[in-house]
Write a structure and sequence with these properties.
about 90 residues, mainly alpha, 4 helices, FERM/acyl-CoA-bd_prot_sf
Length: about 90
């Protein structure tokens, strides 16, 4: 892993902040965050796609697959930006 310690610390900080997002956060946005988080922490998808009767896990797997090939560093940066955007939107609508 070649990303900077500062980026990793900021990523972990925003992973904690993501837990404070309002319940009104759309499933689409939650899935984007999930995919970026998995890509940042694990890398490319390493499991088979869940079956059709497991829609929740299938949607999460698809979100992860959608960012396949993205470097872990880029996934961390994108995740941080997405969390910031969602927190700003939540603050603006509060």
């Amino acid at each position: 892993m070649y990303y900077s310690v500062m980026l990793e610390e900021e990523f972990e900080e925003h992973a904690e902040k993501a837990k404070t997002l309002p319940e009104s956060t759309t499933n689409e946005n939650k899935l984007i965050l999930y995919g970026l988080y998995k890509q940042a922490t694990v890398g490319d998808v390493n499991t088979s796609r869940p079956g059709i009767f497991n829609m929740r896990d299938r949607a999460k797997w698809d979100a992860w697959k959608a960012v396949e090939g993205k470097s872990q560093e880029q996934a961390m940066s994108d995740y941080i930006l997405k969390v910031k955007q969602l927190l700003e939107e939540a603050a603006a609508s509060a």
